[in-house]
Amino acid sequence: MKLRWPTKSLGELAGCGQYGLNAAAMSEGTGVRFVRITDITQGGELKHEEPAFVPEDTAELDNYELKDGDLLIARSGATAGKSYIHRSFGERAVFAGYLIRFQPDTSQILPRFIGAFLQTPGYWRQLNSHKRAVAQPNVNAKQLASLILPVPPLAEQVQIVKLLDEAGELRKLRARADRRMAALIPALFNDMFGNVGNGCLHLPIGQAVEEFIDYRGKTPHKSSSGIPLITAKVVKHGRILEPTEFISDDIYTVWMRRGLPRTGDVLFTMEAPLGQVAIVKDPRIALAQRILLMRPRNALLDSRYFMIALTMPFVRKQIEERATGSTVSGIRQAELRKVLLPIPALKLQKEFAARVLEIQAMQSEQSASRLSLETLFQSLLHRAFNGEL
Q1: Is residue 194 part of a domain?
Q2: pLDDT tens, 85-125?
């Protein structure tokens, strides 16, 4: 940060901080909107899905009512430091107990300028130096009030906010386009096969799959090169990412004694994260524990269709309902076998899979665009708060 701008603490600019309202949230009924940590995105936006409320007759409610420009910062949990600048949305709103409110002095600093600063690495470095790691990371109002911010003249703040807002709008447009694109595959499925595949034969996965293979035992000794070891962390969104772990050729056959992969086999992560899928292209791989290999019956099930169907909302819902575990959600093979799978005619499965490949190609293009926009936004943030704009 260049020294041509003076600096002040958040406390000097926005007061000492006020802890939120300790009250039970209601997910149904009416009342006053209750803004919680979970309602705030990591990018500083307020989510309006599944809102919570508190009764209008809650004691001292007026003391916690949000006003335009109020700054909320999460004080506890894995997302401690996450922030939100309030903008009125047509409803009265109050803030919850695990948030701390600061009220910027607009004669010194623009709330949205603070909001932009709270997205920078410089803010997070300061915050992380204050976090106390007990049961979970947390910060208090005094620590937050001591954070140091640059304070350029208001005219410069206006220009910086304007430029960052324009870049931020492009990010939002990209995110909306991504959400629409993500909805295309389920919509295509419903269009071709009916809602939840109700125009198809339904069979348990156990009857549609020829062979199930999981790999158990002590994790094999890893080497710096050799045969790629496919772990759950590299099975993502229908693809096997570049492996970073390997096992040597001499222990490959022993570890894979239950059966070797074949091209077209479908991989499924049994836990952490549950339900990630990929299809085997190069069978010369080793599979780690808690990855299940499924070999579809060729006369009944197209491999690519099967992989995609496992991610459809109504199939995913069955998987999650059969999963167990309070800390780490996982599913046993016996339970996965019972999940019902819609099975249209094989020709239609192949047509569906081909059309999904076209959609995924467009998603890849959008992903590259999103990465470029994010790089641009982070560059603008860096330059803005180093006085280079």
Answers
A1: no
A2: 999 988 999 999 999 999 999 999 999 999 989 988 889 98
pLDDT of 195 above 80: no
Look at residue 237 and tell me if it is in a domain.
yes
Q: H helices then E strands: how many in the chain?
A: 11, 23
Whether residues 222 and 296 share a domain: the answer is yes
Stronger pLDDT, 2 or 231, i.e. the higher one? 231
For residue 68, give its domain range: 7-151
H or E element: which one contains 295?
strand 291-296
Are 43 and 174 within one domain? Answer: no
**Using CA atoms, how far apart are residues 380 and 365, in angstroms rounded to an integer?**
23
192 part of a folded domain: no
Could you tell me the two tokens for 31? 């009342």
CA distance 260 to 286: 8
Residue 309 belongs to a domain: yes
How far is the C-alpha of 42 from the C-alpha of 208, rounded, in Å? Answer: 41
Question: Are the C-beta atoms of residues 366 and 174 closer than 8 Å to each other?
Answer: yes
∠ Cα 294 300 306 (to 5°) = 45
